[in-house]
Automatic annotation (TrEMBL):
InterPro entries: CoA-transferase_III_domain (IPR050483), CoA-Trfase_fam_III (IPR003673), CoA-Trfase_III_dom3_sf (IPR044855), CoA-Trfase_III_dom_1_sf (IPR023606). Residues 346-372 are annotated as: Disordered. This is CoA transferase. Its EC number is 2.8.3.-. It comes from Streptomyces roseolus. Signal peptide: none annotated. It holds the Pfam family CoA_transf_3. GO terms for molecular function: transferase activity. Keywords: Transferase.
Length: 394
């Protein structure tokens, strides 16, 4: 089992980068946690009366804190400041002036009203990378609230998710927030690279709607390139088959057959080699055209054995398949595969999923648990760098 999680702070890839994090809820905090894992000193600026909304989003709770908050806020320092108070605003401005990156996801115009807009702060910190995360952009969509469920609905994701003819269905997590956080992180890293070459900061803008439309990939391409308006197909794929859920003897089994070679191997293993020679099924294009007939042919043989038995046999034959796991099963699988996906509590607090990127020379580190509200206010306002990563101060 892979367990080599670094527990001592090291010179991460982003060591020396200071992030003033005004982000709340998920997209911004998820992105800044990934930056923090890679060595950045992330200073989380929160309102004193409750802090980040997700601190109260429970149950469930662990160690007296909402697990929602815990899941995206490790390796950060919390500063509680009232931005409507002149002293609190001055302290926030001092943090911004020494930061390399600012992240915010207030409604467009809020930071400008506070005197923390891009044009204002760049006068004293021209190298600042200023990242704004919005729901629907800063122009025509500035007044629209950026909630993940709303964007999943209005951005088309729910129209292609769920059973055919049924009500649109959201993804089981706030997937748009997560995708947007990844895009925002990519934009910040690109802007830091540009600053390294030129010394110039710049504004980075990422919207939930734009990120979702980009992530719709093949469905968006079908619409823009061929005029198709995709609809929900349940667990089926519009362009590939068999790529769906079948009932094994004991529980559901997913098949994800991506080419003709895999299909021939499937047919041989289930005892129906003739299906691969049938003109209705010999090619993927033909299989898509005769999807219902093929599903009927495969259902009987697949129902004869357990999902685990099929998983072993078909995987050995190069046929992509697997059972539908719950999260307990998913983490158990990751453990068996040596991914080290779960962190021990002593590394960064309870309920922590490891950073998914492995770096040989500058691996992610887990220096501190998610902070209590205002835990680091005094030291940050005084300009004291984090003790566990002194290279991150400046």
């Amino acid at each position: 089992m892979h367990t080599d999680h670094p527990r001592e702070p090291g010179p991460g890839a982003l060591s020396g980068v200071v992030v003033a994090d005004f982000g709340r809820v998920l997209a911004g905090p998820y992105m800044t946690m990934l930056l923090a894992d890679l060595g950045a000193d992330v200073i989380k600026i929160e309102r004193p009366d409750g802090g980040d909304d997700t601190r109260a989003w429970g149950p469930p709770f662990a160690d007296g804190q909402a697990t929602y908050f815990l899941g995206v806020n490790r390796n950060k320092r919390s500063v509680a400041l009232d931005l409507t108070d002149p002293d609190g605003l001055a302290a926030a401005r001092a943090i911004v002036d020494r930061a390399d990156v600012l992240v915010e996801n207030f409604r467009p115009g809020t930071m400008e009203r506070l005197g923390l807009g891009f044009e204002e702060v760049r006068r004293t910190n021209p190298g600042l990378v200023y990242c704004s995360v919005t729901g629907f952009g800063t122009d025509g969509g500035a007044a629209l609230p950026g909630y993940d469920l709303l964007v999943q609905a209005m951005g088309g994701l729910m129209s292609v998710t769920g059973e055919p003819g049924g009500q649109g269905t959201k993804a089981g997590v706030a997937l748009v927030d997560v995708i947007t956080g990844l895009h925002a992180g990519l934009g910040v890293l690109a802007a830091l690279r540009h600053r390294e070459r030129t010394g110039e900061g710049q504004r980075v803008e990422v919207s939930l709607l734009g990120s979702l439309l980009s992530a719709l990939t093949n469905q968006a391409a079908a619409h823009l390139g061929a005029g198709v308006v995709p609809r929900a197909m349940g667990n089926r794929h519009p362009s590939i088959t068999p790529y769906e859920v079948f009932e094994a003897r004991d529980r559901p089994l997913v098949l994800a057959v991506g080419n003709d070679r895999q299909f021939r191997a499937l047919c041989a293993r289930i005892g129906r080699p003739g299906l691969a020679e049938d003109p209705r099924f010999a090619t993927n294009t033909a299989r898509v055209a005769h999807r219902e007939a093929l599903t009927a042919e495969l259902a009987g043989p697949l129902a004869a054995r357990t999902a685990d038995a099929w998983f072993e046999e078909l995987t050995a034959a190069g046929v992509p398949c697997g059972p539908i796991n719950d999260l307990a099963g998913a983490f158990a699988l990751a453990d068996r595969l040596g991914l080290g996906a779960r962190l021990p509590e002593e590394a960064a607090g309870p309920g922590q999923v490891a950073h998914p990127v492995r770096l040989g020379a500058t691996p992610p580190s887990y220096r501190s648990a998610p902070p209590r509200l205002g835990e680091h206010t005094a030291e940050v306002v005084a300009g004291i760098p984090p003790v566990d990563n002194p290279a991150a101060g400046r």
